[in-house]
UniProtKB/TrEMBL annotation:
<dbReference type="Pfam" id="PF12697">
    <property type="entry name" value="Abhydrolase_6"/>
</dbReference>
<dbReference type="InterPro" id="IPR029058">
    <property type="entry name" value="AB_hydrolase_fold"/>
</dbReference>
<feature type="domain" description="AB hydrolase-1">
    <location>
        <begin position="4"/>
        <end position="213"/>
    </location>
</feature>
<protein>
    <submittedName>
        <fullName>Pimeloyl-ACP methyl ester carboxylesterase</fullName>
    </submittedName>
</protein>
<dbReference type="GO" id="GO:0003824">
    <property type="term" value="F:catalytic activity"/>
</dbReference>
<dbReference type="InterPro" id="IPR052897">
    <property type="entry name" value="Sec-Metab_Biosynth_Hydrolase"/>
</dbReference>
<dbReference type="InterPro" id="IPR000073">
    <property type="entry name" value="AB_hydrolase_1"/>
</dbReference>
Amino acid sequence: MTDIVLIQGLWLKPQVWAEVHDELERLGLTASAVDLPVHAEATLADQVDAVLAAVDASDDPPLVVGHSAAATLAWLAADAREVAGVVLIGGFPGADGEAYAGFLPAGTGSVDFLGWSDFEEDAADLNAASRAAMQAEMVTMPRGVADGVVRLSNPARYNVPMTLICPEFSPDDAKAWIDGGDLPELAKATKLTLVNLDSGHWPMVSQPAALAQLIADAAG
């Protein structure tokens, strides 16, 4: 049985996976969410270490799932360890030499959640109550994580089975971005599957059962 390692994106706690975790367990799979270091002095290396510790805790190579910006953390795990596969949800792995979250506002301090107005289209399937509950549980993003430089070195990662779950964009959109050279790491992947999920950017909240099933399919 393939273990599943779940990695949440920016500002989220591991508890955001609760419903997905329970559904995966119901489907007969073993899942765990990574408790990423988010204290003020945390670095990208600290978060990578936490992910690798979760991978190493599995008896067999696990399926590593990364949401949004954490697609890069999942990809870094595939670069550093043997994994059964990688699932990316609404995000794409950064390339070697890029900042982990270089799209965030520049500065020296940690970065708070930018607010729902910056994600209005992405959050169209989240009602006001869901948004308020999510925001109440969000954490501040350490600057040392956001500005951390991605380092990739093992070309074997390109042969790892990869599933890109496309929520707020379509598989056709993703294919166009890949073909257009916007996603160089995905362009080199030899076992890439694009899967549609009709949701917003946070399907673990809006459609946990459907998301869990897609993850289970990738594990199967």
